[in-house]
Amino acid sequence: MTVWRNIVRSETGPQLEQDFTIGRVLGKGAFGVVRLVIEKATGKLYACKSISKAKIISREDVDDVRREVEILNLVSPHRTVACLKQVYEDRSAVHIIMELCAGGELFERIVKKGTFTEADAARHFRTMVEMVAHLHFLGVMHRDIKPENFLLTDDTDAADLKACDFGLSDFFKKGQRFSTLIGSAYYVAPEVLRRNYGPECDIWSLGVVLYILLSGMPPFWGTDEKEIFTSILRGNLDFTTAPWPSISDPAKDLVRGILNFDTQQRATAQDILQHPWLAAQGVAPDKPLDNVVITRLRNFAGMTRLRKAAILAAASNLSHEEIHGLRELFKSFDQNGDGHITLDELREGLASQGALADSEVEQILRDTDVDGNGVIDYEEFVASTVNLALLEREEICVKAFQKLDKDGNGTLTEDEIAEAMGMAGRMSASEVKEMIQEYDSDGNGVIDYAEFLKMMHNSDPQLKRASDSLKRGVLAMHI
Prior knowledge:
This protein is α+β, with helices and mostly antiparallel strands. The protein has helices at 16-19, 59-75, 106-113, 118-137, 190-193, 200-215, 225-234, 249-258, 269-273, 276-280, 292-301, 305-315, 320-333, 343-350, 358-368, 378-385, 388-391, 394-404, 414-420, 429-439, 449-457, 461-477; strands at 20-28, 32-39, 45-52, 84-89, 93-99, 104-105, 140-141, 150-152, 161-163, 170-171, 340-341, 376-377, 411-412, 447-448. The chain has a five-stranded antiparallel sheet. It has a three-stranded antiparallel sheet with strand order 6-8-9. A two-stranded antiparallel sheet has the order 7-10. Helix 12 packs across helix 18 (394-404). It starts with 15 loop residues before the first helix and ends with a helix.
């Protein structure tokens, strides 16, 4: 009993049945069941993965569940991932609410459709590679990339493809090696079989998936795991048997570059995204990735100072599982381990994306450094990079408001807001009054909880005005 108690939460939270109506079973696995659920407040459909505590019998099992939740919190939201909505825990199970992908598995769709071109393969494969690039930048390796772990969002031809299972994923640091034999037989990399591997194993698995997408069969065969593993270690790739003679040379070149035994020479996710084959299939390779860290930093930089202070207060109330991934990411930026990210460390940490000019990195640091000490500390990093959806939950907003409401009278006064600004840069009395007016919708000179909640949930007023101005400018150009 004590092994699994409080797997993902340190205190009692809302119950699943309070917020969702439980629907039909979508699938079953070794540790639990996936069901359709309907959010009562919105009517939206989600998938609920319920992990039975009766099956969680060891400390390792508990750590696996907790790590999956930590990773989902870190990698969500992203267009290539079935994103995390909420996590519940009761006496019998841990319930993970995720984005519903109702279109089924990609390979099932291909079989049903009956036709599949290299262009189709390139479009879907690019999504898979972008997912891996997203994970690797955040210091996460998937370790179980296979077709079954990618689902389509709906039944249309325009459906998006999303990764849906992170149960075997783990965090990694630069240069770290792993020895656990893990993954699915056909897709496992040779270095995993040799028990000395890093995130490059995900690239190998992608190569196996691409080989299957193009030919309809895996590159390494066997009647059982032992034979499959032997075939992988031999590494003899077949490009002569049909349909390979009719497959384009650029496609075959990409497969060879990915299924390279030498992990130092193996293509990276960025190499794959720049390969001519993807470009030849009409998928532009020159657009920078919409990196989640850069996007979140930019969003945080654009907030008003009061909202930054509120976000800082809210982020301090997140659970270990919700911010553990960000803690690991912070460590990867903080190269000397002094608890601060300098301009050089931020520049180097974002360099792999190649998407920011030096001036923009400098501006992000200035705007993220809310206390003005010239560096980004851990609290500022978490507040600026966390998934804001986590901070919009009612219980988090209540705690954040209570932290700022020093006298507990249910409103934020000028003095309390001036004190809060200590977390986001000092302000004059006139600036404090102006800040209150920004959100004081009833004009009584203070910010009550309803106004605070609106600030937390809605787009920043300054950003909205800027957006409105931009729209007016665009319209004016066409009049």
